[in-house]
Specification:
By secondary structure, the chain is an alpha/beta fold. The chain is 30% helix and 23% strand. The chain has an eight-stranded mixed β-sheet, with helices on both faces. Strands 2-1-4-5 form a four-stranded antiparallel β-sheet. A hairpin with a 2-residue loop joins strand 9 and strand 10. The two termini are 22 Å apart. It binds iron/sulfur cluster (SF4). The site of iron/sulfur cluster has 14 residues, from loops.
Length: 326
């Protein structure tokens, strides 16, 4: 038997209620942002979580860290269900589970020096204070490719890529075990994206970190992921190793996403699958397979029955009626 995963997410659900009326407000519906998501992440692994905006991938990341509370489900981390922990236990656990946000402009307090931004979590968790804290801040700045004197500066004095490096240093300050990287490069110039992804990879090798790497584009996660999960309208539709996903995508949605990535070799061509229509509303998702309204190969059964998310062999999970189980 292999080692237990570091993180196990079971049937995670988040329905945001829609209410009507101010005084006697009553619930009239729900946005089904995350609707039964399950996956594991092994120690030292990077799981890429990919999908179009509004598919629920960022909500999934925030539910795991309890930045928002789940409607139902389980999140197991080192033998404990995170969703059942009390306030004090949760405070301690936050040391092990960190997040890097998408927008480095909005996620750093503009009135704090970089030194205080990185040093604050160390103080909160009783890891270091005074000169020891300052020394560690300077060390971390160098680890993420900045200079120790940057500790005295303010976030506005840095470029987008540098600010994301500050965000990475802040996450590392408490020696976490897992980091949810919530679209950490989406707001950056393409030329800077690779630098930040490479930095995250180097840090993973050095500190044995585990990542949930969220992105809206399969090309971004290809480099860094060991396995990749593809989300559509609140559900994971395919999950497998990077190799299998990019070489042999089985779900029509994954195939469409991959067909949109340009191939660097001009002698090779790939037929582009254009998906018709917009992503349907998560308030009232389509019946059966949620992808049937846009799927180029949908059959009648797809409208009526929801396909099971099942292993079709070798840990390649897919939810599609047309994929044969081995
Ligand atoms: Fe397309 Fe049907 Fe498969 Fe859904 S179940 S992806 S609609 S073929």
């Amino acid at each position: 038997m292999g080692a237990a995963p570091l993180l196990e997410v079971k049937d995670l659900v988040k329905h945001f209620p829609i209410t009507k009326g101010f005084i006697m407000s009553k619930q009239v519906g729900a946005v089904k942002a995350v609707d039964g998501v399950s996956f594991t992440i092994n120690r030292g692994e990077t799981l890429g979580l990919v999908g179009e905006s509004g598919c629920g991938k960022s909500t999934t990341g925030r539910l795991i860290l309890r930045l928002i509370e789940a409607t139902s489900g389980e999140v197991w981390f080192e033998g404990r269900n995170v969703l059942e922990l009390g306030r004090e236990e949760m405070r301690e656990l936050r040391r092990d589970m960190q997040i890097i946000f998408q927008d480095p402009y909005a996620s750093l307090n503009p009135r704090m020096t970089v030194g205080d931004i990185i040093g604050e979590p160390m103080q909160i968790h009783g890891i270091a204070k005074g000169q020891e804290k300052e020394r560690r801040v300077q060390e971390l700045l160098e680890v993420v490719g900045l200079a120790s004197y940057h500790a005295r500066r303010y976030p506005h004095e840095f470029s987008g890529g540098q600010r994301q490096r500050i965000g990475v240093a802040r996450a590392l300050a408490v020696n976490p075990k897992i980091i949810v990287c919530d679209e950490p490069v989406s707001a950056l110039d393409v030329s800077i994206q690779a630098q930040v992804v490479n930095l995250l990879q180097d840090l993973q090798a050095e500190y044995g970190l585990t990542y949930l790497f969220i992105a809206h584009d399969l090309s971004v996660v290809k480099h860094i992921s060991d396995r990749v999960a593809v989300m559509y309208l609140g559900k994971i539709v395919e999950l497998t190793s990077k190799q299998a996903l990019y070489d042999n995508p089985l779900h029509p949605y994954t195939q469409a996403l991959l067909s949109a990535i340009p191939i660097p070799d001009p002698t090779l061509t790939r037929e582009r699958v254009i998906l018709e229509g917009d992503v349907p509303s998560p308030i009232n998702p389509p019946s059966g397979c949620r992808f049937h309204t846009r799927c180029p190969v949908a059959k009648d059964i797809c409208k009526q029955e929801e396909p099971a998310f099942a292993d079709v062999g070798g840990g390649h999970f897919v939810a599609c009626h047309l994929v044969e189980r081995s």
